[in-house]
Design brief:
This protein has helices spanning 3-35, 68-88, 131-139, 142-146, 163-188, and strands spanning 37-49, 52-64, 96-98, 102-108, 114-128, 151-159, 193-201, 205-208, 219-220, 226-239. By secondary structure, the protein is of the alpha+beta class. It folds into 3 domains: 1-35; 38-49 and 162-239, Translation Initiation Factor IF3, CATH 3.30.110.170; 52-159, 2-Layer Sandwich (Alpha-Beta Plaits), CATH 3.30.70. It is elongated, with a radius of gyration of 34 Å. The chain starts with a helix and ends with a strand.
């Protein structure tokens, strides 16, 4: 075998060794760069009191096919009773929204699907900024029933109008909490915290004040007046 025949394999082997070493070195520094961080979750809570209440009630009457007109008159009488009741409870008229009457036709399939009756429904919504007034009025709705009005509560909800502004403030608090936790962890190990590398803002959880419920897409509990707002931030910091 000639000298050139020995030279070519040697060159190839040498280049392979150098390339392997370079790749290993690059991988080492890349891994070191990736692991030279600390990931910390920060959180913050605020207590809020709802400033808007929404009460939705429904007037309902059912009748056979011959009594539609009478049921409609009964609906009008009940609506008038509701308006008088709300006025007596000092509910401002601009807080009250009356929706149109809906009619559902009932069918008797034992008689070939012929109409057998109707159910009439009408929603009345009270929405205002005096939360306690709306709540106490809803709780007194039994007075309407006692007078013969066919009225039921569909929902009683409480909202906080400043949630968007609060969101920015509470997320800032959660970020500060994350940095404080990261600093304590790193310094306890003799290191120093570097710059923020990434931050992932979680969704807000608005729950009852003693609740531990959470939801992946956020939660907004409208059933209580006093609420707890929780924000979570997932962060990553560099290390010096």
């Amino acid at each position: 075998m000639t000298r050139n025949n020995f030279l070519l394999p040697s060159l190839i082997l040498g280049m392979a060794i150098v390339l392997t070493g370079a790749i290993a070195t690059l991988g080492f520094y890349k891994t070191r760069a990736l692991t030279n961080t600390i990931s910390v979750t920060g959180s913050a809570e605020r207590m809020i009191v709802s400033d808007t209440a929404k009460w939705t009630m429904q007037i309902t009457h059912a009748t056979d096919v011959s009594g539609l007109q009478l049921s409609n008159e009964a609906m009008q009488n009940d609506l008038e009773a509701v308006k008088v009741f709300l006025d007596r409870k000092n509910i401002p008229s601009e807080w009250v929204t009356t929706q149109p009457v809906s009619v559902e036709t009932m069918y008797d399939y034992n008689r070939g699907g012929a109409p057998s009756g109707y159910t009439l429904r009408q929603n009345v919504i009270v929405e205002g900024t005096d939360v306690n007034l709306v709540r106490s009025t809803a709780e007194a709705a039994g007075e309407l029933i006692a007078k013969g009005a066919v009225v039921s509560t569909l929902s009683l909800e409480y909202f906080y109008s400043g949630l968007q502004q609060l969101k920015a403030e509470i997320l800032a608090d959660a970020m500060a909490d994350a940095r404080t936790r990261a600093t304590q962890m790193v310094e306890s190990a003799g290191g120093k915290l570097g710059d923020l590398r990434s931050a992932n803002m979680g969704v807000l959880q608005v729950t009852a004040k003693n609740s531990v419920d959470i939801a992946d897409y956020g939660m907004y509990d409208t059933s209580v007046i006093e609420k707890k707002v929780t924000a979570v931030v997932r962060t990553s910091f560099g290390l010096r």
